[in-house]
Design a protein that fits this description.
With 295 residues, the chain is of the alpha+beta class. It has one domain (3-294). Helix content is 17%, strand content 33%. It has five helices and 17 strands. It has an eight-stranded antiparallel sheet with strand order 1-2-3-14-13-15-11-12, covered by helices on one side. A five-stranded antiparallel sheet has the order 7-6-10-8-9, with no helix packed on it. It has a four-stranded antiparallel sheet with strand order 4-17-5-16, covered by helices on one side.
């Protein structure tokens, strides 16, 4: 059994510890077994792995799903970098500009102004703040996961204090806030299931970390009925657990969801971004920031 599937099995076991209600264990047991047993298409690249599978027979969550996973082993020379621009930019252009090996879209932003709506600091420069809602003091739901990059380019995950300005206390030079946090310190983070943002199925982008230090980037296509229905946040959490993550955070999704891998897919786009309303590689949305895999 290779390392990827070993960690999936570990994640599967963690996901079904007795602390969960028995009926919940029964409900998703078949999905977890399916997730483990399918023949994932695996591509070994320069310091990381790209895996994908199209669940096109409604095998997962009684729905069609297309899921893509980048895994960067802890001992790899490849690592993460966060990038941003004042002009909305395609994920593929961010990647090519910075000579990245791979990239996914980053955190949330205002589609009219292009400004981040979550805190963002890159190389010590503050580029965005947590935009206030009706509650001008406390942060919004999608602002409760802070991803800090160590000098090595490895991520650390923090649940910041409720005050939306508390990132000022984080000393790291590079911090991206998004959310919600899905898994923290090995435990699923409870979600507000009354919110459509949570229970609705959409394209999703997530970042995670395994116990052994492997970095995980996940993209799930959506908004393509019969091809890719998209995931709810509880479903995305299960996917991250089954992969083996002990930390995981949701990033911007929907039409922003994009995965780029140099030399693969259609001009580097390996998933099916949906902003053009078609199931192809041509629907990239211009975004404010991105997460890169670099050396």
């Amino acid at each position: 059994m290779n390392k990827f599937f070993t960690s999936i099995v570990v994640g599967l076991l963690l996901a079904f510890l007795p602390s969960q209600p028995l009926r919940a264990q029964d409900r998703f047991a078949a999905d977890s077994i399916t997730f483990v047993n399918v023949l994932w298409q695996t591509d070994t690249l320069d310091g990381f792995f790209l895996r994908s599978f199209h669940f096109d027979q409604r095998q997962l969550f009684n729905s069609c799903q297309y899921i893509y996973v980048i895994e960067i082993p802890k001992d790899s020379k490849a690592h993460l970098a966060f990038v941003s621009d004042t002009v909305l930019t395609l994920v593929s252009d961010f990647a090519k500009r910075h000579q990245a090996l791979a990239a996914i879209n980053g955190s949330f932003f205002n589609m009219s102004t292009g400004a981040p709506v979550c805190y963002l600091r890159i190389d010590g420069k503050e580029l965005g703040e947590n935009v206030a809602g009706q509650d001008t003091v406390n942060r919004k739901y999608y602002q409760n996961a802070a991803i800090r990059l160590l000098p090595s380019g490895h991520p650390c995950f923090t649940v910041p204090a409720s005050n939306r300005k508390s990132e000022a206390e984080i000393k790291d030079k590079t911090v991206m806030t998004a959310g919600p946090m899905l898994i923290h310190r090995g435990e699923n983070v409870p979600q507000h299931l009354d919110r459509r943002f949570v229970y609705g199925r959409h394209n999703r982008t997530a970042i995670g970390l395994k116990k052994d230090g492997t970095i995980v980037l996940v993209v799930a296509d959506g908004r393509s009925k019969g091809q890719a229905d998209g995931l709810s946040l509880p479903e995305l959490t299960r996917v991250m657990r089954w992969i083996g993550c002990c930390e995981a955070a949701n990033l911007d999704g929907g039409g922003s969801t994009t995965m780029y891998v140099k030399g693969r897919g259609t001009e580097g786009i390996v998933n099916h971004p949906s902003d053009n309303g078609r199931y192809d590689a041509g629907g990239q949305r211009r975004v404010a920031n991105a997460v890169l895999v670099v050396k």
